[in-house]
Design goal:
B: 517 residues; mainly alpha; MYOD Basic-Helix-Loop-Helix Domain, subunit B; 26 helices; 63% helix; elongated; disordered C terminus; DNA binding (chain B); bHLH_dom (chain B); transcription regulation (chain B); BHLH domain-containing protein (chain B); DNA-binding transcription factor activity (chain B)
Chain lengths: 164, 517
Amino acid sequence: MMNTPQQVKNPSTSLKSRFITRFLGALTKINAEDPISSPSPTRIFQRYRRIKVASNKSMAYSVRSRRIWSRAMLSRFRSRRSAFSGRRSSVKTTNCTTINVTINENKTAKGGLDMQTDELRELVPGGEAMDVCNLLDETAHYIKCLTTQVQVMRKIVDFCHLSK
Amino acid sequence: MEKDQVFMGEGLNRAAAVQAGWNSCSFGMEMETDELNCVGSCFLNPKWHNSMDQSDPFESALSSMVCSPAASNAGSTNFPASGDNTMMTDLIGKLGNICNTGDISPQSLIKPPNNNNNCSSNTSCYTSPLDSPPKLNLSMMGGNQILKHPSLVPVSADPGFAERAARFSCFNGLNPQVGVTEAEFVQLTRVSTNQSIMVTGSQVHVPDSNKNTLQDGNSCSDKRNSRLSRCSSPENGDSKDESSISEQIPGVGSSIKAQNDANARKRKSMPRGKAKETPSPAAAEAKIAEENNKSTAKRSKQQNDSAKAENKENPKPPEPPKDYIHVRARRGQATDSHSLAERVRREKISERMKFLQDLVPGCNKVTGKALMLDEIINYVQSLQRQVEFLSMKLATVNPRMNANTEALLSKDMFRSRGSLPHSHYPMDSSALAFGLRYQPQQGLPMNNGISNDTQIKFSMNPANAALHKTQRLQLPPVDGISDANPQIGSFWDDDLQSIVQMGFGQNQPQSCQSKHS
């Protein structure tokens, strides 16, 4: 999946390159703001959370608004930003639950697959408001982006380990 | 994404086929001849997709047309081979004959070809034993569309129609469909007259600009030509003629049913199917939108059945693989628009499932939607956990990064693009100058420590048991930390502290090492 045309293209325009650029920038920023001088677990945990959010955000921004899941993720970040740091995207989820209920009610045709479909909806950002067809589409793209993320982060970690 | 594009291309082909106006299916005429494949080529244009979306209901009706054989062949080549061309020519000729008689302005399109024989299959659909060639303009158009030759055989004599029809049907082996009843024919003719205008209207001819053509409203018959062009794929300038024909025909076919509502419903389902049809020949070919009365449906069912049976596996039998999105009521199945739409939807979903199967490793052996979905869910969960795990790793082992490091990393990543994950890159000596201070002896153990210890400890937690579904993950979801589970929290704290201290090599209290087991 890493060999999609998007990534085989010119590095400067591929999804991977965009993600790398953004994520590395975010990492540098995080490291600058929060130097790992204090090994307290809480600080580490906070840092971990920041890095995780930065990773997801970088990927979402790299995809921009071309995908439903990226749009959902971006709006989630924005709502988070406006909310307190401790508050998660509860606002968004509540809005989506109603939609989810409606959609599920209409999906009697799937029968036994509703459970898995619901699970998938929870996993894929913005999946609550999608029909099954789009959900599968978004899942495919989301998987592709996730693998890119994992790959890049692994490389970074390896690099850091190697550079000891 | 490649596959998406392929899907679209295929969908376009199918749509084109439908557009080919082979709604003549109403006559039980399934344009599944190879000649019709040419029409499919018209739909290779990706823009078709967009245009399809904007097309008016007639488009959808047209989508019901069958252009399978031609479409499939043309799909890859954008135009039928020479052999097909001949057939197409014949077909178009025949169709032209039919259409010529009608008010089809594109007389130019309908040239008096000599190839009425082969095209009979197509034309037969439209040309019923009755003589009302004038009414079969649409069908003619379809024929024109299919054939490269803009000239179609002008429908001269009605008697010829029946003959052609017979030939045509035989051509496809669609003998059953030869039996276009007079009533149907009459219907068709009536419809054709009514629909021709509508059809043409929807198909404003704009070579290579399907979008625009679709937008145009109903126009006069002179727009039929545009219809032809509408379907044309970019490669085929001539295809436009073909497309318009095919487009017109479906319109006629749908109208034949004399139930515009039903048609409209079916048309609606068609665009969906058209737009999203996957390349899989099985799915694509099997669908033929049946927007016409049930009699036609039955007739087409026969064809469809054979087509489906063959196409499902690996097409190329008497009815060549179609890339068009045809949804036709199968034998013994309901023919109402709801079932058809449902079928289209199911096909789309199965196509996407297949695509996901390729994406998710290890899914080839899994059969069934439920298991596939389970695998997909597991995979997505594992990927998300991996991201969390790696970000945790980064949080602990990445104290310093400056611009140089970032540049180096970027360079490495770009260089190693496409490589499998988790490969060690050659360390540049310059990297050491970046101030990454790790103690090698401790860095590695730390890495292993995290995975081993945390894994062990987390595995004790029943809550995390379910998370060990996949093998890839070494560390259970870090979210467990945020669960405020005191047990886990304490474990994590101890390990984390020791690990961090070891990793940084700055503070290495002996107590930490003793704690770290």
